[in-house]
Design brief:
By secondary structure, this protein is of the alpha/beta class. It is built from nine helices and ten strands. The strands form three sheets. Strands 2-1-6-5-8 form a five-stranded parallel beta sheet. Helix 5 packs across helix 7. Bound molecules: S-adenosylmethionine.
Length: 213
């Protein structure tokens, strides 16, 4: 899939693109492009936001700035999904991630300060997504959360077998994964459940099913 992110800080995504699973699918299943509103802003000196009509604190990302960025890359409002990252959006769940991962092309828009001029969400976006009921300083961490969650669902992102039995997956009936343990088998008197050390795969499978949370 192609994922385009519009942001004020494209370089902030560098760390994530060096890590698995994003690094594993980049250039293959995932074509990630990062665009800065500043590169195409029609305002002078790279300005992108302005004071809110009606007064109040903070700055608002301008509709003409976002429209210019979309015009530059797509020649207008694109036919594919354009998602505003916003605390007012639909909550991000694994179902929403699965839905996004099936798209061929998705655009994510990040804002900062007071957020988007509402006309951006109404006229330039198809929908908006919130990563949770709390406010972050800008949409870049939310964009990275969405990017990472999508990348995990793309073919080749994870080692075979490690992506299926995950929390929220259909394989676990949408539940939370069972607990994991590794060496040592005992630490400060805290023992790993005997069944997991037994080598009896049928019993281990049963134990795991019983311990889905
Ligand atoms: C400081 S927030 C704006 C908060 C907004 N004034 C409000 O009260 O809802 C700036 C930007 O960060 C991003 N953002 C902050 N929290 C978010 C969340 N929970 N989910 C998605 N995006 C978020 C959005 O792009 C938002 O426009």
């Amino acid at each position: 899939m192609r994922l385009d992110v519009f942001t004020l800080v494209p370089h902030a995504f560098a760390w994530l693109t060096e890590q698995r699973p994003v690094a594993a699918v980049l250039g293959g299943e995932l074509d990630l492009r990062l665009f800065s509103y500043r590169e195409t802003t029609p305002l002078r000196a790279g300005e992108v936001d302005d004071e809110p009509y009606g007064g109040g604190a903070g700055m608002v990302l301008r509709v003409d700035v976002v429209a210019a960025a979309l015009d530059d890359v797509y020649g207008g409002v694109p036919p594919h999904r354009v998602v505003a990252l916003s605390p007012q959006g639909r909550g991000l769940t694994q179902d929403v991630v699965e839905e996004l991962a099936k798209e061929e092309h998705v655009t994510l828009l990040s804002a900062r300060f007071e957020g988007f001029d509402e006309r951006i969400v109404e006229h330039l976006c198809t929908d908006s997504i919130s990563i949770g009921p709390y406010v972050l300083s800008n949409g870049d961490l939310p964009a990275m959360v969405v990017l990472d969650a999508i990348a995990r669902r793309l073919p080749g992102a994870l080692a075979a077998g490690s992506g299926e039995f995950e929390s929220f997956s259909a394989e676990l009936d949408g539940g939370l994964e069972y607990p994991h343990y590794t060496r040592p088998p005992e630490f400060r008197g805290w023992r790993v459940p005997d069944v997991l050390l037994s080598g009896d795969h049928a019993k281990i499978e049963r134990w795991r099913k019983e311990h889905v949370r």
